[in-house]
Amino acid sequence: MEKNNKKQTGKRSYGSLFLKKHSMSRRGEKAIYVRKEYHERLSRIVQVIGGGDIPLYAYLDNILKHHFELFSEDIVEDFYKRNKPIL
Q1: Taking Cα atoms as reference points, which of 64, 9, 6, 54 lies closest to residue 34?
Q2: What are phi and psi of 50, to 5 degrees?
Q3: Which of 26, 47, 56, 71 gets the most CB atoms within 10 Å of its CB?
Q4: H/E element, 70
């Protein structure tokens, strides 16, 4: 299983990708809702692996940043398939 994890994250460790200091100085202006079990799991990851040094909002922002980098071409392709121009 570790082999698949390394493939997804490259040669960097999980912590160096997602549990790093963040440029956001505070939480964003929007609230999001996640399943209770996901919130509990995310909070534990931040507390245990991250040592409590990174806020949950920064961890989530890092996850989303990686997701968009990894899937940007697919997202754009699917967007244009479903949003064809009129002319």
Answers
A1: 64
A2: -80, -5
A3: 56
A4: helix 56-82
